[in-house]
Amino acid sequence: MSAEVPVLVPAALSLELVQPVPPEVPAGTVIALQVRVWGAGRDLRGGRIEIIAAEEVVATAELIEFRDGFSETEPFAAKAPDRVGEFTWTVRFPPQTIDGIAYDEGALQVSSQTAPHRTSLAVWAIPSPVRMAERLAITVGAKSSGACALSGAKVEISDETGTMVGEGVLGDTPWPGTDALYWTEIGLTAPSEEGMRHWSATFAATELELPHLFSSAQFSFMTVKPPEHSVAIKVITSDDATPLEKVQVALGPYRAATDNAGLARIEVPTGKYDLAVWKAGFEAASKIVDVAANLIVQLELTRRAKELTIWD
Amino acid sequence: MSKSPAETGQGKDIENRPGAAIDRRSFLTSGAAVGAVAIAEASAHAADAISWDREVDVVVIGAGAGGLVAAIAASERGASVLIVEKNFDIGGRGMMSFGGLYIGGGNRMQKEKGVEDSPDRAFADWSRPDKPMGRFSDRALVRTWADNNLELFAWLENHGVKWEAYRGGPDRLDRGGRTRLNVVRWPNEPTTPARGSGFVRPLEKTARQMGIEILLQQQMTKIHRESPLAGRVTGIATIEVDDHYQPKTRTMNIRAHKGIIIATGGSAGNPVFRTMFDVRLTEEYQAENSEWTLRTGDGEIAAMEIGAALGATACQTTQDDNLITKGRMGKKSNGTITELYPTSPHFFRARALGLLVKDYQDVILVKENGFRFYDETVPTRDYEYYAAALAWTGDPKKFNGGGPIWAIFDADAVAREEWEVKPPHVDPDGYFFAADTIEELAARIVNEYQWRPMPPAALRKSVDRYNSFVDSGVDADFKKPRPMYKIAKPPFYAAWHTPALHDSYTGVRINTTAQVMDLHGKIIPGLYACGDSAGGFGQHGICRAATFGRIAGFHAAAQQS
């Protein structure tokens, strides 16, 4: 007998997605789709599926699994539109013949919305304290949530009043150790008054291939008067007066670490300062120091009691 | 010398007290109502009806520090002994111990060092009323420990344990030059640098030479008693388990003619059990060293099901020891000092080595909500730190426990601490994250105990605020000693830094012969407990386990079959 008698199954096909498309996806990102087709319980393996966006086929896949009367594709990629807004895809089973049986068209409409990529910033290598009116350089990096290349995009620096005080253009390669943090160094001038500064970096690129949201990040530094005196700080242990190296020393906002003779030198203007020292394994110590001339200060550090350390 | 239960006033049967439970033997001799006798006999027959797969004099549950000592002690007094152990290797918590014993009494090592000591002094120190660690202990048990120090010292030496030295300053309640005595690490222990191997491996060797059988991967599921709440214990039921402690099909009933010794390592790893004592210690807190031993309170639960009481439970909440520790970070089972080599057969459970923070100026610690909660630099026994860490942060479905704590740090901190921020040092599967920015870092934290995503804006705010404290010199929120380093240079990291649970300091109530007591103050005949499964003495570690394990072994062996 002849096998060449096609059987038409009009309007008996139904399509569904194994996982629904999220209601919102980042613009231009790739979404994994997996299509399942019911054709009166028939094995539709070898059949073709199309994804149609704006009357154009943007992805195709083949039905390769047959289970419980359903035929399925493997997960396959479809790229969401680059523009922000609603979009609709048609998941289409085109008219085709499978195993000698001719099938009519089946289709499913899916809708979602694209959103711009988020961005975030890192600001580092900020010198602090900085002398009033001096030049300083900071490093700023920006990251796209889609890990998009941000080379050539601009970042701006503003002071507390919102006045732009500097800008830079992100370079071509990500910062070492990061996935896609594009960065640049920005030169700035410190204000001519003393005090704590809370400035911000902003990213507001509009020229990128994919849409990106604005982001900003605060950073802080201190501005100080030029130094007048040199303070030498010597740190020793309280039990046997051994000089301690690599002790972190802070005289007000000024910072240094002791050398192997237990000495740190800090230049400061006249004034009254909190002297604080820190070394892991020792009790923190501090004292108030009046600086009106060059000065030598000694500080003792006490080891933390053994019973306070960690045992088994 | 140890005092007998009669001398200490513990364990006396209190049959004449109105309403007191009466065990089977006293019941039968007291000539009680005929119907009740019939019931008691029926249940005794029910016990006889168990089909026993094995029969020995003494069954020891757990092959850790206490269990190995108990087994050897019972064996050398002529009993046939079988040990069942849930893990695929012996050692239990003892294997991961730092390997120091609180042992004194004026032993040879102390004399060599010119340290004067005596059982009286040891007793006085460890029952000190001025320290919570000593205040709540059962003084009869403390006395027993002190009186056994010298004998135990010699006994352990005779059974293969080698002493290293008394080292370091006073630890916990020791005074007057007595301190922990370390054992010599078992040479080439392939699994862990911990010294505890120098305690459990020589004892394992001795036990095997004595012909003591150790059944590995057998989990005790029940202790059989003549009747549910009366009579002698008769044996145990076990089930074979796999490497993940999942039950397989083979079960056994093991008859114990003389005694059953519980040495299951305590309950630190069982959230349901431990929250009986401190309801804040919910499931996110991991028991240290659970890669070797889960410490799920198996012995305590089985004993309580046949009527056992708990002992000196206040020891569990003294806040005067490393009950909770800061631990390592970047791995789930975040014990403090002891770790496993990546080549260890147990490493599949640890998944990472973890990172130890040398200087807490290098990190900030935030809760699941992204906010700091305390001065990061406080020492590991600061219980105000833990109170803050365990405080509620807003989970509407969970009011107890404080959720995950994350250490947040930057590339500069990694360089200062010389951390290696990749496996096997950290566990990127839920316990360690890296990102290019702070906001991204918060969004990356996905963990089984993190009930909501960490709000990126909150973490950003915390970091910015902390960085401004580094500029100004003052931590206006938590008074951390002069904050020294900003968290600024990418990449950024988040490492699991949730407090870890060190040990349990209570368990079933025992008397001075390590016999388990019931809720009516009566001995459960044939049942013993030692180590962290036993309550009454808030002393951490392997000396208490060995002291009462040895007593239990001797006493059980002397029972009539």
| Helix segment tally of chain B | 18
- β-strand percent of chain B reads 15-25%
Largest sheet of chain B: 8 strands, mixed
Overall mean pLDDT of chain B stands at 90
- Residue fraction in strands of chain A: over 45%
Binned, the helix content of chain B reads 25-40%
Briefly summarize what is shown.
The complex is a heterodimer of chains A (312) and B (561). By secondary structure, chain A is mainly beta. Chain A has strands spanning 13-17, 24-26, 30-33, 35-39, 48-53, 56-67, 70-73, 76-79, 85-93, 96-98, 101-103, 106-115, 119-124, 130-131, 135-144, 154-158, 164-169, 181-189, 195-203, 215-224, 229-237, 248-251, 254-257, 263-268, 271-278, 285-291, 295-301.
Describe the structure in your own words.
The complex is a heterodimer of chains A (312) and B (561). By secondary structure, chain A is mostly beta strands. Chain A is 0% helix and 54% strand. In chain A, the strands form seven sheets. In chain A, strands 1-4-7-6-5-9-12-2 form an eight-stranded mixed β-sheet, with no helix packed on it. In chain A, a hairpin with a 5-residue loop joins β16 and β17 (164-169). Chain A is elongated, with a radius of gyration of 33 Å. Mean pLDDT of chain A is 92; it is low at 307-312. Chain B is of the alpha/beta class and 561 residues long. In chain B, strands 1, 2, 6, 7, 8, 9, 19 and 20 form an eight-stranded mixed β-sheet that branches. In chain B, strands 13-14-16-15 form a four-stranded antiparallel β-sheet. In chain B, β8 and β9 form a beta hairpin. In chain B, α4 (65-76) runs parallel beside α18 and α9 (139-158) crosses α18. The longest helix of chain B is centred in the first third of the chain and has 20 residues, at 139-158. Chain B starts with a helix and ends with a helix. The model of chain B is unreliable at 1-39 (pLDDT under 50). At the A-B interface, β13, β20 and β25 of A face α16 and α17 of B.
